[in-house]
Amino acid sequence: LRLFVFLLASLAAWYLGYFVAAHVPQNTVSIAALQEIGKKPVLRAPAPKRQKCDHWSPCPPGNFAYRILSGGGKQRRAKICFEDEQLISEENAEVGSGINIAIVNCNCVIDSTDHSREMMDFIRNAPEGTLLLMATHDDGSTRLKNGVKKLVEELGSKEIKNIKFRSSWVFIGAKGFKLPDNIQREKINHSDKTKNRYKGWPAEIQIEGCIPRNLI
């Protein structure tokens, strides 16, 4: 009796397999599809949204974004960005050797010079309540006189007197008001033959941050 039941079950299983193979389409379930069953879905992070002045994260509401990059070597020129507007850049014909300066006071005025007298006049003529963003390209120290250094120091610079031949230097100062203590305002990098990235030039440096709109 047991043998009969076993033969009957085997025959039924064979018939069921034959029926499924004959009536179910071959491409209904593939091996690849079976392998995908049970796998966890892959979550892909969305592409990061570009922020103003290429910040990694956006400035809080009610703030201006800024980014200042010094020059590097002969080819990489200084860049000054404010609220996503490139005031000074590699494509801008205004970029020159020396200390490049951009003034921000609702409307942006751009200038660059390596002459102390012109730089002194530029800073003195800047209206109260303006920002002055500065970045070196090539050498900004050779023609820098003590009178100019004093004016920049009055704007809040702590490194202007330490600039040496071909030092990379970036700075943001305020005329007529005080900037918040928690923002990046200045950075300097001196030429060092053992560490220079561009032969006789040190690597470029940068500062960036956010400034409350109600200050300007």
From TrEMBL:
InterPro entries linked: FAM3, ILEI/PANDER_dom
All residue ranges annotated as the ILEI/PANDER domain in the record: 97-176
Keywords (A to Z) from UniProt: Disulfide bond, Lectin, Secreted, Signal
Pfam families in the cross-refs: ILEI
Signal peptide: 1-22
PROSITE patterns: GG_LECTIN
The keyword Nucleotide-binding is assigned to this record: no
An annotated Gene Ontology molecular function: carbohydrate binding
Cellular localization per UniProt: Secreted
GO cellular component: extracellular region
Similarity comment text for this entry: Belongs to the FAM3 family.
Protein name: FAM3B protein
Source organism phylogeny: Eukaryota, Metazoa, Chordata, Craniata, Vertebrata
Encoding gene per record: Fam3b
